[in-house]
Design brief:
- The chain has 261 residues and is mainly β.
- It has four helices and 15 strands.
- It is globular and about 55 Å long.
- Zinc ion binds next to strand 7.
Length: 261
């Protein structure tokens, strides 16, 4: 219904090029990161996250993931430094994950997947007037990617997982005020960076990717809560568990991956 793409057998990543030919383009994401082929760039400065006065608004199930949205009418929450020439405003964050005991990250490292991947989506409000305008420009977006690895329970992830029952179905939205995503991040923000795309249709080639090397650690039980969500709407007869909502790695096509350390 409406959505012509998904993560199923017939509408999944291998079919996206039918409606979105850029799926076979020259700067698609995610990619497999080969640490030994990444170029250490001494000119890359540290990533600075200015999320102190950040204002989350709500949490939603958009039918593909769970998304926390932020107030982005001013520069209250921005990412700066690293490969970025301007501060980029935080618009939303969301997750990609696998099935039980399955792989779920989008980026891989030397062919290895993590259980899940968190994406913090930011846009260049210095150069562009709206998020939509930025989302289709070559330097419009900056997405910070954080791997989730299973292990001990994460101290703060319950803030998200405790809210998931309110957004089980596609299209559901609940207030989610005052959440600062800084509590989710690992202690070191060393990263790889490269030029890529959105990993979901319309797959615009507009993203400066910043993939953090150190994963955040979360428990199996915490990840399992994401799988209580469903891809389908409350009114639909069929219920399909939301899992394996990740795109596999795409061709590098001559791009360079740079490393901050
Ligand atoms: O999957 C998200 C999608 O939901 C949307 O947030 C888009 C930005 O408009 O970004 C992609 S992703 O590339 O961050 N996975
Ligand atoms: Zn994403």
């Amino acid at each position: 219904t409406g959505n012509q793409w998904g993560y199923g057998k017939d509408d999944g990543p291998s079919a996206w090029n039918k409606n979105y030919p850029v799926a076979d383009g020259d700067r698609q994401s995610p990619i497999d990161i080969l640490p030994h082929q990444a170029r250490h760039d001494p000119n890359l400065s540290p990533i600075v996250l200015n999320y102190d006065r950040c204002t989350s608004i709500n949490i939603a199930n958009n039918g593909n993931s769970v998304v926390v949205e932020f107030e982005d009418s001013d520069d209250r929450s921005v990412i700066q430094g690293g490969p970025l020439d301007n501060p980029y405003r935080l618009k939303q964050f969301h997750f990609h994950w696998g099935g039980k005991g399955c792989h779920g990250s989008e980026h891989t490292v030397e062919g290895n997947s993590y259980a899940s991947e968190l994406h913090l989506v930011h846009w260049n409000a210095v150069k562009f007037k709206t998020f939509g305008e930025a989302a289709s420009a070559p330097d419009g977006l900056a997405v910070l990617g954080i791997f989730l690895e299973t292990g001990d329970e994460h101290r703060w992830l319950h803030m998200i997982t405790d809210a998931l029952y309110t957004v089980k179905f596609k299209g559901s939205v609940t207030d989610f005020k005052g959440f600062n995503p800084k509590c989710l991040l690992p202690s070191s923000l060393h990263y790889w960076t490269y030029l890529g795309s959105l990993t979901t249709p319309p797959l615009h080639e507009s993203v400066i990717w910043i993939v953090v090397k150190e994963p955040m650690i979360v428990s199996e039980k915490q990840l399992g809560k994401f799988r209580t969500l469903v891809f389908t709407g409350e009114e639909e007869d069929e219920r399909t568990r939301m899992e394996n909502n990740f795109r596999p790695p795409q061709l590098l096509k001559g791009r360079t991956v740079r490393s901050s350390n």
